[in-house]
Amino acid sequence: MDWLTILTTTVHAAIGWEAVVYGLAAIGVNIHFGYTGLLNFGQAAFMAVAGYGLAVMITVFNAPFWVGIAVGLAGAVLLALVLGAPTLRLRADYLAIVTIAAAEIIRLIFRSVYFKDIFGGSDGRRGFNADFYAMNPYPPGHYGIGPFGFNERTMWLLTVGWSVVLLSCLVVYLLMKSPWGRVLKAIREDEDAVRSLGKNVFAYKMQSLVLGGVIGCFGGFFYGLYNGSVQPDVFGTEMTFFAYTIVILGGAARVFGPVVGAMIFWVLFVFIGNLLAELVANGYIPFMTSIQVGPIRYALVGLGFILLLVYRPQGIFGDKREIAIDAR
Amino acid sequence: MTYKGAPLRRAVIAFTAFLGGLIFLLASPAGAAADGEGLRGTLRLQGQPVNGVKIVVTTEDGQPVKEVTTDAKGQWEVPVPKAGKYKVTLDVKTLPPNAQIRGGNPVRTPTVYEGNVSTVLFALEPKAAAGQQPADSSDGGQFWRRAAQLTFEGFNLGLIIALAALGLSLIYGTTGLTNFAHGELVTLGAVVAWFFNTGIFGLAGMPLIPAAILAVIVCGAFGYLQDRLFWGKLRKRGTGVIAMMIISIGVAILLRNLIQFFFGPQTESFTEYNAQAGITVGPITAAPKNFWAMGIELAVLIIVGLALLKTRTGKAARAVADNPALAASSGINVDRVIRIIWTVGGAIAALAGVMLGLSQFLKFTMGQDILLLVFAGVTLGGLGTAFGALVGSLVVGVFIQVSTLWVPPELKSVGALAVLIIVLLFRPQGILGRRERIG
Predict the structure, then answer these.
(1) CATH superfamily of B41-126
(2) Among A167, B36, B55, B278, which one is most buried in terms of CB atoms within 10 A?
């Protein structure tokens, strides 16, 4: 049993790139679902549009890095407008189906052979993060204590990533304290009451969708920048559901809920996965093969998600009265 | 909301125990996946495996690695020494005379990643017979022949979708649950039938037809138990429909990955009815199994439809779907009706899975992949209506297949999903739904 590897990978997972990517996705979902009560099941699409916007601009059109970022952001805003304009008037379950279908449409288009010249088919796009790492101020080396730590490239990504996470949390905190944020929460509680007070519910929902989508899309950027590639199948429905699991684990409608949720989620996910893999490799679990470790830990995510929603829908920090899942 | 902890906790423990039981039921050596890197693929022509085709694998700079021919399932696999780029050439001369590669290029250059087996795609299409023009829309006769063939295939797909959609729609109608885990019932049916078909516990494999019947029974029982031990308890507890919908996503992830645990990530087919010579009826060519499958699907749908119209339970089910409170106050045992619907829904979803596995192939994501099409069918017909789901599914199936006349086949689902969105926008109650269900 290689306990050291298990320990280091677990500690790294708490502050690693996965926590950044999924933390950002979850902050976006928290704005949609936690504060506004919108069941957007297409969060992965926002991340895909951003990741592909960056990747395609740089690899296909040879555009500068910042143009790629701008196109990715514009893509996310555009997606929110296109997705929201017709669907935000629908009931919650219809909205869920429509957003999930829209996310699948985008994934299928990205992976199609028909558009392979632009999006690269199922292999996706790679080789677009050189400009990002060219800005790295850290000299080469190992940063950390003992076996814990990262190389200079990961350090740079994590520095920028966590800065964006904290900035997003600050934005969410300030906005939700403002009158604007109170209207969002009121929409979650009773849409008709808000409408009767003369507020334009549709406009508020749209603003919420755009804001959450834009914050989520940074997750798409960081995914692409860390892995140096984007593939269509990464941005499947599972990514969205992980983000939901994280929001509910941390506590919906809480500023730091998604961040803490993402850290705990990835610590558990990596720890259980590595522990099982080690146990299997050393023959402690004779009825399992190492290939079966993957499905088991995903199955555990599903089980955990069910148990959370049944027994503690408010998660770790949430307030039971503020959960939108019993509404309507 | 108050906590009624103890009974619910028992319920969840029972549900978990049940899933554990399922684990042992299904426990069998998982498919021996090859260690290390490799390349593999499956050749199919109109859903039928193509065997005896020579595939040559070389490294990027032309060093030969291995030559293989596809087996009876149309599959081939070549282990490669290390990760990297490889060149895979399909020997066009060994293809059946009626087949050609779509796009015409017989060479693929896949990249194999460390520890992964890459799948190489060669899409085959029927070749126009000698002397005829290749099919294109300018040639009227060919176009209509193809349209007729695709319409037939569309009905085939639509009937499968309808089987799954009927259960989904009835469950929605009676309980308000938008069940995202319904696709996994479809997969489960196919996989259970496959395990019976190929043999488990050292049990010899049985022919597909009894295996399919057993799978339908097992999945009907699973549907019953799922409601008895899980959803029913949640309903009693007063869990909202939105909460249940989100919970169903967790159930979907759990079931899908448990299925993958036992079944493995690869694609499989049943041991029988794989390579059947097509028979031609008018403009349509299809394997006999497709006609049989459609006949069975139609028969089941008609039986369920008649049961809904004529039997006491069926009438009760429609009454509950209309108005649960009113139904309960007029003496209908709502819980019993819902349980029957879960049982029947699970059973016919399993049948849909078997039929889907028969006409395509089996994979642990097959139900997930068809779920959105099922939603499209259900919404198009009207969420909560039984006959609407039928009509909607047929429309979706035909639309998907016929649309490949104009759009690339890989994007055919995009059209169906776009239709789903458009329907929700302009007529959210669907074709047969009532106005009050509007979103």
Answers:
(1) Immunoglobulins (2.60.40.10)
(2) B55
Top CATH class of B144-437 equals mainly alpha
Contacts of A244 in chain B (CB under 8 A): 246, 249
Question: Under an 8 A CB cutoff, do B253 and A309 touch?
Answer: no
Interface A-B, measured as beta-carbon pairs within 8 A, has a size of 148
Q: What is the ipTM of this complex?
A: 0.89
Task: Give, as one character, the DSSP assignment of residue B127.
Answer: P
Mean pLDDT of A91-107: 86
Mean pLDDT of chain A: 90
Q: Which two tokens stand for residue B204?
A: 């010899």
pLDDT of residue B28: 36
For chain A, report the end-to-end CA distance as a whole number of angstroms: 51
Q: Whole-prediction pTM value?
A: 0.79
- Establish if B122 touches chain A: CB-CB under 8 angstroms: no
Among candidate residues A243, A203, A240, the one with its CA nearest the CA of residue A103: A240
**Do B65 and B86 touch, CB atoms closer than 8 A?**
yes
How many other C-beta atoms lie within 10 A of the C-beta of residue B417? 24
Where are the domain boundaries for CATH 1.10.3470 in chain B?
A: 144-437
Q: Which of B240, B408, B425 sits opposite A112 (nearest CB)?
A: B408
Question: Do the chains contact at A101 and B379, CB–CB below 8 Å?
Answer: no
DSSP string, B12-74: HHHHHHHHHHHHHHH--PPP-PPSS-EEEEE-EETTEE--S-EEEEEETTS-EEEEEE--TTS
pLDDT at A326: 56
Residue B38's DSSP bridge partners are B79, B117
A306 pLDDT band, cuts 50/70/90, is very high
Average pLDDT for runs of 10 along chain B of length 439: 47 54 43 57 75 80 77 78 77 76 74 70 65 46 83 91 90 88 95 89 80 94 94 88 89 94 88 75 80 91 89 89 85 91 94 91 90 89 78 91 85 84 77 54
Q: Cβ separation of A302 and B254 shorter than 8 Å?
A: yes
| Contact state of B379 with A324 under an 8 Å Cβ cutoff | no
User: Within chain A, what is the greatest distance between any pair of CA atoms?
Assistant: 66
Distance (Å) from the C-alpha of residue B188 to the closest C-alpha of chain A?
15
* Tokens 């690899």 found at: A59
Q: What angle do CA B211, B214, B217 make, to 5 degrees?
A: 150
Residue-wise pLDDT tens digits, B233-277: 998 888 888 889 889 999 999 999 999 999 988 888 888 777 677
Long-range contacts of A164-169 (CB under 8 A, 24+ apart): A164/A20, A164/A24, A164/A218, A164/A222, A165/A20, A165/A23, A165/A24, A165/A27, A165/A259, A168/A24, A168/A27, A168/A215, A168/A218, A169/A27, A169/A255, A169/A256, A169/A259
